[in-house]
Specification:
The structure holds 2 protein chains of 2 kinds. By secondary structure, chain A is α+β, with helices and mostly antiparallel strands. Chain A is built from 4 helices and 9 strands, in the order αββββαβαββββα. Chain A has one domain: Ribosomal Protein S5, domain 2 (2-Layer Sandwich), CATH 3.30.230. In chain B, 39% of the residues are buried. Chain B is 27% helix and 20% strand. Classes of the chains: A alpha+beta, B alpha+beta.
Amino acid sequence: MSDRRRINGPVGATIPPASEDGASREVAGSRGGRSRPPNAIRKMYLKTGVTPSASGSAYLEIETSGRSGVSGLKLSCTVHGPRSLPRSSPFSPHIILSTHVKYAPFATRQRRGYLRDPSERDLGTHLEAALRGAIIADRWPKSGVDIIVSIIEGDQDRETSKTQGDESWDLMNALSGCITVASAALADAGIDCIDTVAGGVAALVSDKGDGNPSIVIDPIPSEHDRILAACCIAYLPTRDEVTNLWFKGDLPASDAELYTKLVEKGIQASAKANRVLVECLGETVG
Amino acid sequence: MASTQHVLLSPAELAYLHAALSLTPPIRPDGRAPAQFRPLIAETGILPGTNGSARICFADGTEAIVGVKAEVERTRLADGATAGTEWEEGGSARGEGEDDDGGDKAGDSDWVGLTVEIPGYRDDDAGTAFLGAMLSEALLADGAFARRLWINRRFHWKLYLDILLISPPLSYPLPLLSLTTHLALLATRLPLLKSEGDEDPFFDDDWAAARHLYPRGSGSSRTTKESARPPVTLLVMAVGNNIIFDPAKEELAVADVALAVSVAEDTAVATSTAATMDLDDAAVPAARSLRLLSIRTIDPPSRLTPPGVPNAANSAYGATTAQNQPEARTAEAEAVEGVWRAPRGGAKPLVMAALVQKVLEKGGVADEVLDALDAVDLG
């Protein structure tokens, strides 16, 4: 189904030429290595209550990496509700969550349309699973809440002119940001949760220099030579529970240790993001 | 959404089911063992107009068909120009470092188009998109699948997988769709290439000479690096301390946590053992090692079930507090034995790890399923 309501840009668009400043790149390695220690997440800025018309809202910005042309993630989330369901809908003993994740058309290197594509719907389903575990749903029977996350700027390296299949790994970073920002917006809207849920990503990467793959948290795909596996985790720290787990990659089953470690690191990343979240909410209250 | 469709079970029924499934060993409504699949009927090659097709019918009446169609497509170079226009310089520059089965044969995830159709649901429904994303993610996870579609540097096969559930979704259709896709891909054949090098592809028109996308048979035809079987996605859930495979709809309605785990056979090991142990065919399946490709949490419909009311809070049984104090209704009721409450929160990381471990263990369910699918006649 194509979008007939708006005048869209041409379909076969070209990518603007990017001049490659060869000298500086060669020194730093072809893709620029990771500048942070392996168990540090990027700095993030979180603020709640940015959209006055919504009942709850939050804005999340994740630091850009040191190189120019690489943008950080910028997310904005609005929560509308809880409000009563339309009369036509059947009785529900719980609050009905509906989550929408949408990339802005200009958020990524490849322009996105106004209609949500399957990958965005998929992200919405992941977000719903992550939040549903955190919300105390039976306190609002017969009501619904809309959670809308717009990704204003994706986490992509615009200078690399060739596509390296990084997009699928970018989704994980985007999801972890979506979970954190949606959790902050839910708290801002005053919807009861059992805990604040935050997202974290850990990845098994291999770099050119050393042969052994290593596990890093909060990976930027363009900083690594190859990502072998990654997992995104939504974690409730006070209950020590995972509400959403998304693992993707290629791991030998004989090495269960590797998988366990990856999940552990994901939980660690999520706990770090949670600290930022709790501090931000504390500021609002205090 | 397909996994969270409304389950018409009362709180009392849910509490009963949960209790029965938490016993050791669990008592499932259809009498299966915890790791037992529903019996199924499978056949391949049912659609003459496709490159490969399969149909699976589960005993509970759900049925799916998958058709695989392949088209030749011109490969786009990364800079956006088609390969044909800038062929001269591009070809000579890359020709030097050409490695026969190296990274030059890299595939692209765009070469596979996968659509899922579930009756009663819109094709842009979030649940359908989730199912489609899960199946294609598993297929493309190891990067070897797209490489199979490589013809030469200018052309590739574009594979369209159309997955149709032809019965109403009586249970969460993920295992059914995954097994059917697996069989259809095993049965898929592509015409034999007659042209050489980078010229326009020209194929043998004899269908009998067509080659399987996943070559079958003994180790000789297999290439070592690629897995010889498509992945399978298994649905597994935990209730209490029990791990239950292939849950029916009613069982999923009381799940504490549900995971979809995709695994594939790792043939790098299997072929080497097959070469050394020619004498003993039975030793080959034992040497199979699995690869973990993807895991997703399925939002269990149990979170959307109505809670039961304990007698102590029920005015029909003499409780008066609920009527007099409206505050008391919102206050948290203590969990009462035998009264259903929708689970809250997530799952402990250890429980999730146990679920994954159970899928991957040697001689476990994944092995059994792959063995069973091996027995299907591919025509």
